[in-house]
Amino acid sequence: MNDSADTDREVPVIIPRPEHNISRANISKNALKVLYRLKDAGYQSFIVGGGVRDLLLGREPKDFDIATDAHPEEVRRLFRNCRLIGRRFRLAHVHFGRDIIEVATFRAAPIDQVGDDHDHATSEEGRILRDNIYGGIDDDVWRRDFTANGLYYNVADFSIWDYVGGVEDVRNGVMRLIGEPAARYREDPVRMLRAVRFAAKLGFRIETATEAPLFELGELLRDVPAARLFDECLKLFLSGHALQSFEMLRHYDMFRHLFPSADGELEGLDGETVRTLVLNSLENTDRRVAEGKTVTPTFLFAVFLWGSVSRLAAKLRDAGDAPMQAMLEAADTVLRNQQSHVSIPRRYGVPLKDIMALQVRFKNQHGRRALRVLEHPSFRAAYDFMRLRALSGEESAENVEFWTQLQEMDPEHRRSKVEPVRGRRRKRRRPRRKKPNA
Ligand code: ATP
Ligand code: MG
Question: Would the pLDDT of 123 be above 50?
Answer without folding.
Answer: no
